């Protein structure tokens, strides 16, 4: 039996490994952006994606270059929406890794009812680094870290208290003198192409798929039209699994079945951003520059999920920005000197350095019900538009913000801003549910009332977007959807 997995992102790669481990012949299909010739000579510095309020990682030239190539490869038109669709190996995971949000997703993953075999595969495949345990092991002689460890252990059995982040990092590749941050690191799962894969990689772009094509004598096959090195080829498979992401799978589905021409919802998390002071949980002088702490706030009618990032890492990313370095060299040197002095003196209680090591940038994810964005495929383009939900729901958001401030202050977490910063729509980079109207709960596609051998296993077929970072949930869900197959 010949299987195709369309999509070489984190879900496509994991699913391809899982199916091939079961003895199936698997082709994992995704483009090679490096061989695409339409963007030769493009100056990435001339591309402004207004990404300042999205992530400091957009200061990375390799990420910007990948986005530009991907947008040419997969064109989109957006209105009041930041969309990120990366056509590279491992997709977003190549640059972000993932906050696996174990504590925030426990109940969601429990409902999937994974069996032991599925759990063992995921445990073997995905690295999991508990940030605070990592600090405990590396800095167990430091008094501050001992106090943090005791504090978090006292809260460990309480669901609505702050927890350590669990990141998809290889612990043995974490250099203590250069811990992972916004820059490239081999410790980030997905940053380096996987070795010893037991499936076949086809470097091509799927233009269209046909179910039971009329031009072949092969019964019950799915035909994929692929563009490889500017030439078109036909491949035939017994089963096809689509894992191109909420935007990519939507595009391929719509351009394959032209009679389906409607506008659909795309779920995502509106984000509020603030600065917070957490006196009882300082991050070490040497720390991971990614999310360190998570908190799920249960606010009666609503819940929100908060990620906390060390503020020093953000300051360093700003100082190391090339445009800043080139224009303000002397100021940059001076600020770096000030920052180093603050860090060295940060053991002095209530000194500026002591305070800075307790200040975090908090990203507050609101429920997807507050999003109001639509997606459609027309004239060979994906179009995504979003309404100004914050203007329409200003009173609701303001009430929610005041609840968050009170909730946090009772837990020793103090917001330093009177009002939060609103991130652009789509800045969460967590998209789902675009194809939920065309699939059953198991991701199966029905055409003319008949069940086909096409299954959509990524977030686009889900009618639910978890509040926490959903990466682990959708990976687990994809594996669970393969059980009946």
Characteristic key phrases:
alpha+beta, 15 helices
Mean pLDDT, all residues: 88
User: Are there runs of 5+ residues with pLDDT below 50, and where?
Assistant: 43-49
- Backbone shape: globular
Tally of separate domains: 1
Helix content: 25-40%
Q: Major beta sheet, specifics?
A: 7 strands, antiparallel
State the helix count. Answer: 15
What is the radius of gyration?
Answer: 23 Å
Quaternary arrangement of the chains shown? single chain
How many beta-strand elements?
22
Percent of residues in beta strands?
15-25%
Alpha-carbon distance between the two ends: 12 Å
Helix-and-strand structural type: alpha+beta
Write the topology of this structure.
Layout: E1 2-6, H1 10-21, E2 25-30, H2 61-73, E3 76-79, H3 93-96, H4 102-110, H5 116-125, E4 129-130, H6 131-138, H7 143-155, E5 163-164, E6 166-167, E7 200-203, E8 205-211, E9 222-228, E10 231-237, E11 239-242, H8 245-256, E12 264-265, E13 271-277, E14 293-299, E15 302-310, H9 311-319, H10 322-327, H11 329-344, H12 352-356, E16 359-365, E17 373-378, E18 381-386, H13 389-392, H14 394-409, E19 414-415, E20 421-422, E21 444-447, E22 450-456, H15 471-481
Parallel strand pairs: 1-2, 1-11, 2-7, 3-18, 11-22
Antiparallel strand pairs: 4-6, 5-14, 8-9, 9-10, 12-17, 13-16, 13-19, 13-20, 14-15, 15-16, 17-18, 21-22
Helix pairs in contact: 1-15, 4-15, 6-7
């Amino acid at each position: 039996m010949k299987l195709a997995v369309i999509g070489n992102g984190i879900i496509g790669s994991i699913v391809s490994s899982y199916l091939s481990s079961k003895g199936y012949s698997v082709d994992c299909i995704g483009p090679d952006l490096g061989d695409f010739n339409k963007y030769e000579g493009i100056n990435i510095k001339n591309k402004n994606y207004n990404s300042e309020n999205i992530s400091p990682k957009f200061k990375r030239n390799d990420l910007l270059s990948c986005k530009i190539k991907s947008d040419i490869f997969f064109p989109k038109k957006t209105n009041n929406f930041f969309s990120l669709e990366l056509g590279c190996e491992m997709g977003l995971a190549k640059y972000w890794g993932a906050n696996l949000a174990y504590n925030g997703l426990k109940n969601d993953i429990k409902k999937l009812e994974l069996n032991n075999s599925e759990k063992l595969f995921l445990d073997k495949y995905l690295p999991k680094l508990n940030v605070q345990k990592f600090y405990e092991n590396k800095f167990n002689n430091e008094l501050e870290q001992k106090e943090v460890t005791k504090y978090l252990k006292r809260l460990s059995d309480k669901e609505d208290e702050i927890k350590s982040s669990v990141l998809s990092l290889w612990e043995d590749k974490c250099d203590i003198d250069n811990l992972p941050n916004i820059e490239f690191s081999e410790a980030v799962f997905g940053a380096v192409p996987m070795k010893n894969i037991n499936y076949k990689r086809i470097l091509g772009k799927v233009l269209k798929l046909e179910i039971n094509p009329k031009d072949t004598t092969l019964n019950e096959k799915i035909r994929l039209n692929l563009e490889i090195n500017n030439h078109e080829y036909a491949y035939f498979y017994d089963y096809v699994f689509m894992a191109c992401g909420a935007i990519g799978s939507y595009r391929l589905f719509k351009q394959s079945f032209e009679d389906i021409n409607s506008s659909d919802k795309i779920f995502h998390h509106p984000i509020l951003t603030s600065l917070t002071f957490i006196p009882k949980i300082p991050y070490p002088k040497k720390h991971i520059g990614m999310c360190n702490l998570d908190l799920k706030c249960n606010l009666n009618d609503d819940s929100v999920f908060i990620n906390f990032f060390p503020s020093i890492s953000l300051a360093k990313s700003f100082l190391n920005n090339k445009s800043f370095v080139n224009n303000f060299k002397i100021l940059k040197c001076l600020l770096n000197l000030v920052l180093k002095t603050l860090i060295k003196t940060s053991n002095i209680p209530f000194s500026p350095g002591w305070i800075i090591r307790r200040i975090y940038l908090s990203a507050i994810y609101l429920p997807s019900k507050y999003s109001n964005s639509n997606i459609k495929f027309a004239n060979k383009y994906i179009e995504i538009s979003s309404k100004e939900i914050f203007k329409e729901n200003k009173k609701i958001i303001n009430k929610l913000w005041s609840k968050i401030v009170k909730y946090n202050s009772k837990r020793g977490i103090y917001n330093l801003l009177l009002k939060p910063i609103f991130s652009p729509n789509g800045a969460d980079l967590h998209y789902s549910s675009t194809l939920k109207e065309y699939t059953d709960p198991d991701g199966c596609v029905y055409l003319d009332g008949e069940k086909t051998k096409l299954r959509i296993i990524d977030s686009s077929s889900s009618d639910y977007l978890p509040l926490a970072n959903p990466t682990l949930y959708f990976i687990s869900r994809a594996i669970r959807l393969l059980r009946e197959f």
